[in-house]
Write the structure tokens for this entry.
Amino acid sequence: MWEEAKKAIRDAFASKRPPYKIYIDLFSEKQDIKTLMDTFLCHKRALLAELPENNHTEEQQINLIFGLLHSRIRARIHTENINTFDELLKNARKIEESHLEERSSKREGDQ
């Protein structure tokens, strides 16, 4: 019953774009310095959700997105330690917070 309901919702509201177009959108934009991980990851996961069901495991999805992350995040996260999007997001948030603190400290030192 639940599976039928999910399928009905997906059929009614899911994108009907072919997968190759979704992949083009997925890989067309990397994370820039201004885009927070929450926003970036939400956008990329929404694109992945448009693909046919069970197309990629969560680990594969993480690997697809990892190369698109800003270099300051990629340099400090090792994918072998990340198994879920929650872990990726949690680690990336720590890096972003650290980066913001460093920038704030530098500004205070300049004054």
User: Anything to note?
Assistant: The radius of gyration is 17 Å. The CA atoms of residues 79 and 88 lie 8 Å apart. The chain has a mean pLDDT of 88. Residues 2-110 form one domain.
